[in-house]
Each structure stands twice: as structure tokens, then as C-alpha cells.
Design brief:
Elements lengths: L1 E5 L3 E5 L13 E5 L1 H11 L3 E5 L1 E2 L3 H12 L8 E2 L6 E5 L8 E5 L4 H4 L7 H5 L4 E5 L7 H16 L3 E5 L9 H11 L5 E3 L7 E2 L2 E2 L10 H15 L3 E11 L2 E10 L2 E4 L3 E4 L6 H14 L4 H15 L11 H8 L8
Parallel strand pairs: 1-4, 1-9, 2-7, 5-6, 9-10, 10-11, 11-14
Antiparallel strand pairs: 2-3, 7-8, 12-13, 14-15, 15-16, 15-17
Helix pairs in contact: 1-8, 8-9, 9-10
């Protein structure tokens, strides 16, 4: 199965050793971005994976391109144009101090590019699966044009479309995000995350009052209402329990074929939290591509996310065997 995703590739700068930005004298460099993280993770799982973005035609853009190629992601669809690469600064949390992100993404090559005449059919033709996220339409009006055109073309080409809602409060307003993202749902087959979306029944938002750590009963109810309104093939979301900045627990729920499934719960220490949600997305997409049984699929997706938390950088570069061992609680050294 051939996979393609569209989004902004980001340069990440973070102080070493949990230093604060205001006191550091150096930064560690990584490349990432929600959709790029999924593409790289799937490529490392053996999926034929392609990434479309716009990068500046300079050394930073070329370095980002080389990062994708080094991870076996096809990058022939990338456009080189503009002057800036999207950047963010990560101050990693430790113990009781939470992580902090500072975005420097305005006027990036990806956000500023005019996609009006971009031939999305030529870009997407020949692929089976398209993955998008709610981050892209938050970046600019041009990016909304890109995403809307991509969804229409993908449906015309009979592609499977997965969508991670991926709300970022520092990029746009909650109500605006809800209005925009809800219009995309008729095009989506696999929904990852359920906020922010309009979902009303008898004039009331059925998600209102839903806990961040919901019960199976409550999650099943919301999933069924979502399914009744949009007819998704699969809906999934993670549930995180934050014990400290360096120790979390994670589980997930998934709804498919009229049934809701609850994953096992993992407790783990954190090396790098960024990209955990993208690793869940890639794990779920891989499991669905492989037609794993639903209970196995959701356990694999959560294990993929947990594995990412042990890897420095934005991306889960683990292979299928490593994730499966974690899913089965096998931690012996591999000789």
C-alpha cells in the first residue's frame, strides 16, 4: 500500500540537558512536524511512504530534504520555494516543570506558497492512503486551500483518508478550529482525536463534560454519535495520565465496525515527549494497513506512541518487531 502525507516540515531547536532557553548557550537540532513524523515512522515500519511539502531552496531546506531521504521517505513531490523554514523552540520539561514550545512559523515557505494552481491530482495519483492533520489549516489561508483541495481530490481518487485533529492553541482559536475542522469530516475515513469538532444532538454538544480520562461507557457513547453523524471506518484517541513531566501512563480507545475497544495501559518514563501523538497515528495506520485484529491494532498503536517517548527527536524510528516486543512487555536485551 502506498502512503502519502502533506504538511509543514519543521526545524526544532532545543537546549541540551533540560536547560532553559534563556540560559542556554547551544541548541540541539532535529527535524519534525506532525505529518513528517508519521511519514518517517511508517517508512521505518516498511511502508512505501511519500511526503509533500514546500521547503526553502537553501541549506536548511536541503538538510530537511536529506533527513527525509535518510529515513527512506520519498521526497520527489517536494517543492523548493520561498525563504524560510518553519521553526520551533522546545524547552524540555523535567520533574515538576512542564515543557514549553515557542513557534517561529509565520511567513514560512510552506505557509506562504500559493497552492491555487498546484496540481493535487498529479501529486496524489497512484497512492492508496492520504494522511492530514488539523495543524495545516491553522497556518494560513493558503494552507486551507491546499488541505481542502487535497481532501476533494483524495475522495475522487478513492483514497483512504486519515485525519489527526491535532489542535494547537498557539496557532489558532478553539472556535475557529472547530468551525473549520468540522467541514472536513465528510471526507475522512480514519479520525484520530475527537477535538475540536462540532457534534450536536438535540441542540447539545455530546462531548460537553467528557473527561480527559473518560470511562469506557462515556467514550463508547461519544464514538457511536460520531460514527452515526460521519460514518467513519475507524475513530481513535489516546488518554494520557501525567504523573510528572518525566513519567506518564498512556492508553487509548478505538471504535470500528460498531464496536469500541480499550487498549492496555502503559506506564513509562520519558526521554522526549514530542511526537508521541504522531507515533500513535503511524502505529494505528500501520496496524490498519496490516489488517490487525482491532484489539491488537489499538494495543500496537499505543505501544508505538510509548516507544517514541524513549527516543530523542520528533519521530518514532522503531521497527515493527521492537513495538511488538513492547506491546507484549518484553524488555530483554536483543543479541
Amino acid at each position: 500500500m502506498k502512503f502519502i502525507t502533506i504538511g509543514e516540515l519543521l526545524l526544532r531547536l532545543s537546549p541540551p540537558n533540560y536547560e532553559k532557553i534563556r540560559t542556554t548557550s547551544s541548541f540541539l537540532v532535529h527535524f519534525g512536524g506532525a505529518e513528517a513524523n508519521v511519514a518517517v515512522s511508517l517508512a521505518n515500519l516498511g511502508v512505501d511512504s511519500t511526503y509533500f511539502t514546500v521547503l526553502p531552496n537553501n541549506s536548511l531546506g536541503k538538510a530537511a530534504y536529506a533527513y527525509l531521504k535518510a529515513n527512506d521517505v520519498h521526497a520527489s513531490r517536494i517543492i523548493f520555494d520561498g525563504e524560510r523554514i518553519g521553526t520551533y523552540y522546545l524547552e524540555e520539561g523535567v520533574a515538576v516543570r512542564a515543557s514549553q514550545v515557542i513557534y517561529d512559523r509565520k511567513y514560512s515557505a510552506f505557509a506562504e506558497y500559493d497552492y491555487t494552481d498546484t496540481d493535487l491530482e498529479a501529486i496524489l495519483k497512484g497512492y492508496d492512503w492520504l494522511h492530514l492533520s488539523g495543524i495545516t489549516p491553522a497556518l494560513s489561508a493558503n494552507c486551507r486551500v491546499l488541505l481542502e483541495k487535497s481532501l476533494v481530490v483524495a475522495k475522487r481518487l478513492n483514497m483512504t483518508v486519515s485525519f489527526d485533529t491535532n489542535y494547537r492553541a498557539k496557532l489558532w482559536d478553539w472556535d475557529e478550529a472547530k468551525d473549520v475542522l468540522s467541514t472536513y469530516m465528510p471526507y475522512v475515513d480514519i479520525l484520530i482525536g475527537i477535538e475540536p469538532l462540532h457534534l450536536y444532538k438535540d441542540g447539545k454538544d455530546i462531548k460537553e463534560g467528557l473527561s480527559m480520562q473518560p470511562s469506557f461507557k462515556d467514550m463508547n457513547r461519544v464514538f457511536r454519535e460520531l460514527d452515526a453523524q460521519f460514518h467513519f471506518k475507524c475513530i481513535a484517541r489516546t488518554v494520557r495520565f501525567t504523573h510528572s513531566s518525566n513519567n506518564n501512563s498512556l492508553m487509548a480507545f478505538m471504535h470500528t465496525d460498531g464496536e469500541t475497544y480499550e487498549s492496555k495501559t502503559f506506564n513509562f518514563d520519558i526521554v522526549d515527549r514530542v511526537g508521541g501523538g504522531d507515533a500513535f497515528s503511524s502505529g494505528l495506520i500501520f496496524a490498519l494497513m496490516k489488517k490487525m485484529e482491532p484489539q491488537t491494532a489499538i494495543n500496537f498503536a499505543v505501544a508505538s506512541s510509548v516507544m517514541k517517548h524513549s527516543i530523542r527527536g520528533d519521530t518514532n524510528i522503531a521497527d515493527e518487531a521492537s513495538i511488538t516486543r513492547l506491546m507484549n512487555n518484553t524488555f530483554d536485551i536483543q543479541r
